[in-house]
Every structure is written in C-alpha cells, then in structure tokens.
Design goal:
By secondary structure, the protein is of the alpha+beta class. It has helices at about 1-20, 30-40, 75-85, 95-105, 115-125, 170-180, 215-225, 235-240, 260-265, 300-330, 340-350, 355-375, 380-400, 405-420, 425-460, and strands at about 50-55, 60-65, 110-115, 130-135, 140, 190-195, 200-210, 255, 270-275, 280-285, 465, 470.
C-alpha cells in the first residue's frame, strides 16, 4: 500500500509537469497517445475516450480522442470516424495531412491544426475531438462541442409585461446566438479571451465595431487578460475580478438576463461579456441611471414608461430613508410631526420597552430573515411562507408590545419599495445603506442623515466604471439621449451617450412630423 501511494504521487507530479510544459507532439502515434493518457489519468479516469482506427486514404494508423459528456457522439461518428474509414481516391495535392483531411475527408463544421500538448488538453476539455495520425507531428482538432444545458426560458428576475420573453441560459453559444438575433449587424464582433491558469475558461467579449470606442475595448480586454487565478467558474466571479473598487456598495458592472437589454446597450457603445455556466451577461461600463431602469421602459408609451420609472425612483428613496426619517423625527424632531399624529405614535409606543432604534432593528432584521428564507425555501411554498410569516410575526410582535403598529407599516412599505429596485446589486447596496442610515439617524437626527447623504453623493461622483464617471452624463455633464430621470419620446432620442465615447455619436436625425386630424 505505501508503494501504491508513492506511485500515485509520482504519476500526479509527472502529469502536472507535462501540462505546464509547452511540449510539441511526437512523430510517433503511440508516444502522443501515451502522453495524453497519462495526463488524463487513463484508464483510471474513463471520461477520456480513445478510438483506434486505420485510415485507408493515408495508409496509416490513427487515434481519435474526446472527452465524454462534452461532445456530440453522433457528430463524431457521422462527420469524423465515418469519412476516415471510407476508401477514397484523391490526388495528393498537399503534403500536409491536416490540410488534406480538412479539405477532402472530414465533413465537420470546423477544424484546426494544433502542434502542442497543452493545445490538445485545452481542446479536449472544451468539448472538441482530437485526431492523431502515425508519422505526423501535429494533430487535428475538430469542433464537436455539445454540453448539456436547459432550454431557453422566461426571465426570472427581469420580468416584463411588454417585450421579448426569452432569457439567457448557461450556454455561451446559445447566449451569443440570442444577441445576434437582436443585433443583426455585419460588424458585430465576438472576441474570445481565455482566463484561468489551471482550468482555462473562455470569455466572449461582444461589441459593435463601428460604435464602441477602441480605447474602451482595449481597456476591457487588458483587464480580463490581467486576471491571474486558477479558474473563474462564471460571470459572477469574473465581475468581482474586474471591479475597480471591490469594497464599494455601488456596482460598477451591470448584469442582465435579457438579450434585448444587452443588445440595446451595445447600440450605445457598451461592451457585453458572456461566459459558459452563466445565465446572464455583463455590461460595461455602467452609470447610476442604468441601475433603476429596465428594458421595458422603452417598450411602453412615453407617459407609461416615465410613470413606472418615477415609481422606481421614489422606491429607491423610500427604501433608503423612510425608517431613518422615522427614527430621527421620533427621537430628535418631535416638533416637526403634527400633534395628532405625534400623540397617536406616543400612545402606540407607550408600552414598548425598547428604544426606537432597537424596535426598528428588530423589525428590519426580521424582514431580511423572511426575505432570505423565502428565497431558500422551495419555490412552491416560498411565497406562501414569506407572506404568512410576515403577517403572523408582525401581528404577534404588536400584540406582545415588542413593536408599535406604525412601525410595522413603515417596515412593510420599506420592504416593498426595495423589491421595486430592478438591479439586484444596487438592491443589496440600498438595503445595507439603510442600516447605516438607521444608526446615523438615532445618534444625530436629520443633521446626520443630510451629512451622510451628501457624502454618498460625493462618493458616487468620484466613482468610475472603466473610466466612465458613475453619475455621467449629469455629473460631469455630457451630451446624451437625455435618458436619465425620465425618457424622451423615441423620435427625440437623437444622440448616443457621449460618456462611452461612441464612434458614431448620432443615433437618428431630427424629424418634424405634422399632426393629422
């Protein structure tokens, strides 16, 4: 048994060394096969599939390698193995075997020649099939990727009454296809960037070449390539690596699960990032105004879109300030409350044994617990438990004289307002800032709330997202489509936002339309 452990360590060390070396293939087929088998721990690891075959056209032996459950076996049989086993008479117009097989034998969609061990490893784990032949110091990688995944479904977070009903899934190829369906442009560029040292993953960077700023493209590409880590599992982890201020409560990257929204940002000069295992896309750069807007704003008529946008903006302020304003008014500024209302509040709090801050904290923490429990509970009973739990606990707390009835109303309005904030990262930031506002209001009243609000505005002015000021185009002022607190009518949406430095700054020309009776 000790000897067996030593052999395993030696084998693992050898495999790791082979993977780190930029080692070319050998002319001997068996040498290349043994090397790959050792790296993938074959036959202990049966996920690596090996098929020996004789290629009549070349009159030599060959081997096909592929990674189980990541390839389409029907494609391998129909477009690789089948054609290779057929006898053909072809003029040997090329001395390169890879070129000959690609042009005259294989019928797969795409293939490429590789020359190094590490290239073969990357191709195999990404779902491609590798073909070796005797006496040839290269290999052929054929595209056969077919990872399992779910079908396209409805959005789960960014729901909309009007507009498309499809959302991204965990397949990068499907997500790229969804974007191409919305952006049918010849200059839609998709660059693949590899990140991760131990388990490399590919990030798809998509943008419109005639609109996106070249400096922004190079900046985003450099920041992705500078990531030095073993692996990045999905876009949520990539987002944390790309952030300029990881400790900030305000997000500098926007995540969306809607292809139509990602496409609309691309037409404004933004860059979209897509990755396998992520049912969303990242959009860079991002400004504050995009955090409480939705794609549905532009699908509705002018009055309707502005109305729901105003509701969401009010919800941000209600979710952030309402509990702290209640604490400040009750604790320091009683004279600002109408006498009748103040007497009613005092009567309800007469038997409550806790200070106002403790009373609010009890209800706020309880609400956050119910919110988190509603997410973790199975979806069938989650909403029921959340609603009943809030009603039962709130009523029981009032009857037990732990909290006052008016506080239950305040916390309920605050919680509902936070649900109206569409961006989940911004939602978390507002919820955390609400607790900070509570403590400031309890100790310093309205003065502290005003001071902290001023600090937050100054802090947001200093933030940047990939070089773009967070509050632009308002601070600093720059020309744009004026899509900030309200949205203009579609035919007045003339310019693209200048903060993204788009190459094509004009979206459409001003048109005069006569009204008809």
């Amino acid at each position: 048994m000790p000897h067996d452990k030593g052999w395993r360590k030696s084998r693992a060390k050898t495999a790791d060394n082979l993977m780190t070396e930029d080692q070319p293939f050998s002319f001997r087929l068996q040498t290349n096969a043994d090397l790959l088998k050792e790296i993938f721990y074959y036959p202990t690891n049966l996920a690596l599939k090996v098929r020996n075959l004789y290629i009549p056209l070349l009159d030599r032996e060959g081997m096909v390698f592929y990674w189980e459950d990541s390839v389409d076996t029907q494609t391998i049989e129909a477009h690789i193995v089948g054609p290779l086993l057929q006898t053909k008479e072809i003029a040997m117009d090329s001395g390169d075997i890879a070129t000959l097989l690609t042009k005259h034998v294989l019928t797969a969609a795409s293939s490429k020649k590789i020359s190094f061990i590490q290239e073969a490893i990357d191709e195999l784990i990404n779902g491609n099939t590798v073909l070796f032949t005797e006496g040839y110091a290269h290999a052929l990688s054929i595209s056969t990727t077919s990872f399992e995944g779910r079908t396209i479904s409805l959005p789960t977070v960014e729901n909309a009454v009007k507009g498309p009903k499809e959302a991204f899934i965990e397949s990068a190829s499907v997500n790229r296809s969804l974007i191409r369906k919305h952006v049918r442009e010849h200059d839609l560029i998709c660059e693949l960037i590899t990140v991760g040292e131990r388990a490399p993953k590919q990030v798809s960077m998509m943008y419109l070449h005639s609109i996106a700023d070249s400096e922004l493209i190079e900046g985003v590409k450099k920041r992705i390539m500078d990531i030095d880590t073993d692996t990045i599992m999905n876009l949520s982890m990539l987002e944390q690596h790309l952030e300029e201020r990881p400790y900030s409560l305000f997000p500098s990257i926007l995540a969306t699960e809607r292809p139509d929204r990602a496409a609309s940002f691309m037409y404004e000069g933004h860059i979209v990032l897509i990755m396998d295992n992520s049912p969303l896309a990242l959009i860079v750069p991002v400004t504050f105004w995009a955090l409480f807007q939705t794609g549905e704003d532009w699908y509705l008529r002018w009055a309707y879109g502005n109305f729901i946008r105003l509701i969401r903006l009010i919800s941000v302020f209600v979710a952030l300030f309402t509990p702290s304003l209640y604490i400040a008014a009750v604790t320091f500024h009683v004279e600002m409350i109408p006498p009748d209302l103040m007497l009613a509040i005092a009567a309800t709090r007469e038997r409550v044994p806790f200070p106002t801050l403790v009373e609010v904290l009890i209800m706020e923490v309880s609400f956050e617990i119910l919110r988190e429990a509603g997410i973790r509970i199975p979806s069938v009973i989650g909403p029921t438990i959340g609603i009943l739990g809030a009603l039962i606990l709130g009523q029981a707390a009032v009857q037990a004289n732990i909290v006052s009835p008016i506080l239950v109303v305040i916390v309920a309005i605050t919680g509902l307002s936070s649900f109206a904030i569409p961006e989940i990262s911004f939602n978390f930031g507002i919820r955390i800032l609400r607790f900070l506002m509570l403590f400031v209001a309890f100790f310093t009243g309205f003065f502290g709330i005003g001071l902290l609000s001023t600090f937050l505005v100054a802090y947001m002015v200093s933030l940047k997202s990939f070089g773009v000021p967070f509050l632009s185009p308002m601070a600093p002022f720059q020309p744009s489509a004026k899509d900030l607190l309200y949205r203009p009518i579609l035919r007045d949406r003339l310019l693209r936002p200048f903060y993204a430095s788009p190459q094509d700054q004009v979206r459409q020309k001003k048109t005069e339309r006569k009204s008809s009776r």
